[in-house]
Amino acid sequence: SYVRERIQQQQSKALPPHTTLQRHVKANKNVRIPRFYYPGGKPTPVSQVEATIAKITKAFETLPGHRATRGQFHIISKACDLPLYWKVPLFLAAGGDKCNYVEMANFLNFWKDMCKNHHDAASKFVRITTRGLRESILPEDLICLIQDVVDSHPGLTFLKEATEFHSRYVHT
């Protein structure tokens, strides 16, 4: 009997205390687990969104009629702190394909709506390239972006003149 008790004491010292998450939570009711998953990216501070809106407004005010055409959208893209080559998808996502320009009020509504749920570059890119229709990108969503790179990148001037290769380059 003494030997058996001695063995049990040694085994109980070697084993960690049995605890489950449920017991741990019951014992520590004040523990708060911070949110760690944000599907559209971690929310942007309101002050930063307002600063971007002020920059966008200022950019539109420099344009005639407070509207931007496809050729002027590099100014708007820069004001949004987005990469230069997102300008055409941004133009199209904001409704520029309907009348070949985007008015300041319409773009500000688009931008505010997008900033509600899309905070990081990746989620903004998906929202812009898909025009808000899907949560994943299809190859055809990137055609306008790649075509713009072909048309305006200084290192691809040889392709600009050889229009017969545009389709092959864009679809590869």
UniProtKB/TrEMBL annotation:
<dbReference type="Pfam" id="PF17958">
    <property type="entry name" value="EF-hand_13"/>
</dbReference>
<protein>
    <submittedName>
        <fullName>Uncharacterized protein</fullName>
    </submittedName>
</protein>
<dbReference type="GO" id="GO:0019888">
    <property type="term" value="F:protein phosphatase regulator activity"/>
</dbReference>
<dbReference type="GO" id="GO:0000159">
    <property type="term" value="C:protein phosphatase type 2A complex"/>
</dbReference>
<feature type="domain" description="PP2A regulatory subunit B'' EF-hand">
    <location>
        <begin position="120"/>
        <end position="172"/>
    </location>
</feature>
<keyword id="KW-0479">Metal-binding</keyword>
<dbReference type="InterPro" id="IPR048855">
    <property type="entry name" value="P2R3A_B_D_EF-hand"/>
</dbReference>
<dbReference type="Pfam" id="PF21161">
    <property type="entry name" value="P2R3B_EF-hand"/>
</dbReference>
<dbReference type="GO" id="GO:0046872">
    <property type="term" value="F:metal ion binding"/>
</dbReference>
<feature type="domain" description="Serine/threonine-protein phosphatase 2A regulatory subunit B'' subunit alpha/beta/delta EF-hand">
    <location>
        <begin position="55"/>
        <end position="114"/>
    </location>
</feature>
<dbReference type="InterPro" id="IPR041534">
    <property type="entry name" value="EF-hand_13"/>
</dbReference>
